[in-house]
Amino acid sequence: MRKHRFRIGLTGILFALIATVSSFVHTTWAEEFGGTEPGTWVLGFRVGFTPLTQQLSDNTSTSIGPLVNFQGLYSVNSWFLVGMMLEWERHGVSLERPDMDLGHQDTVSVLPTMELRPAKFGRITPYVNMSFGVNVNSFGEDTGTRISPSNTFAWRLGWGADYKLNERFALNAEWAYKRNDGHATVNGIRTGDWNASSFGFLFGAKMFF
Length: 209
Known about the structure:
Layout: H1 2-28, E1 41-50, E2 60-62, E3 65-75, E4 80-95, E5 100-116, E6 124-141, E7 147-149, E8 152-164, E9 169-179, E10 181-186, E11 189-195, E12 198-208
Antiparallel strand pairs: 1-3, 1-12, 2-4, 3-4, 4-5, 5-6, 6-8, 7-10, 8-9, 9-12, 10-11
C-alpha cells in the first residue's frame, strides 16, 4: 500500500513536470528561446530540508533532515547546461515499537547533471534539471545495533527558478525528488527493504561568470 501511494504521487509529479515544460516551451514561441547566455559558468550553493517519500524500513520512523547542495554548470547554449551536483542530507532514524533512537543516516550524492532553461521572464528564469549518479550512504549508531546501508543508484529530478539581482548573482529556489532505494545490513543480517528516497526543498544563491 505504501509503495502504491508513492507511485501515485510520483506519477503526479511527472505529469506536473511535463505540463510545466510544455508551458515553458509554448511561451518561447512568442519570446526569445533560452534563459542563459551561452558559455556561462553557473555556481550554486543551496541549503534546505528534506523529508523521505515513505517509511525508510518496516517499523521505523525518520526525521525531516537538513540538506546542503553545491552545483557547478556550464551553458552549452542559451537553453541547455551540463555539470555536476554534490548533495548531502541527514535523517534521524528510530524504531516505532519499542520507541528507541537508532542513530542517523547520512547520504552524499554525486550527480552528473543536465539542465534545461527554455525561457526568461524579466529577472526570473525557470528551469528543470535531471541527474544520474551514486548515493553514498552511511549510518551513525546511537545503540549497539550495527546498521550498514548500501550505496545506491541516484536519479534526481528537480525544477525551480532563479531571480537575478544583477548580471552576476541570483537568488534561487528549487524542489526535487531523489531516488535512493537499496538494502541494509543490520547486525549482519541483510534486509532488502531500505528506501531513503526523498523530496528536497532548497533555497540559496547562484553566481554567473
